[in-house]
Amino acid sequence: MVSLAALVFAGLANFVAAFQLALVAGAPWGHLTMGGRWPGRLPREGRAVAAVSAVLMALMAAVMLGLDGRGWAPPAWAGWLIVGYLVLGTVLHVMTPSRAERRLWLPVILAMLALALVVMISR
User: Fold this and answer.
1) How far apart are CA 38 and CA 76, in angstroms?
2) Contact at 8 Å (CB) between 79 and 119?
3) Residue numbers of the domain that contains 22
């Protein structure tokens, strides 16, 4: 069960990273991120934030897989840091003024939070 949770978490994190990289490349999905502030393509500063987010998501995937014994062995606090980040992200996605963003990303972040908790509680 824990290995499945880590794998599904990594898949979701990499999906989010791919979405962010598409934004960096100019995909017209600004209404689905950053509170829907920019419909269409993100401006340069929005793309920079998306690039950082893509890297963070890929790192989170690697940490969860590592905590499951796949690859490197990150410290346990890194997993709890991810849980905290996801709790904050959940709150922000509940509060976002963008209904489209909330409908798309709230279920994803809740799933990621639940999966991260499965991995961390099982340790």
Assistant:
1) 37
2) yes
3) 2-121
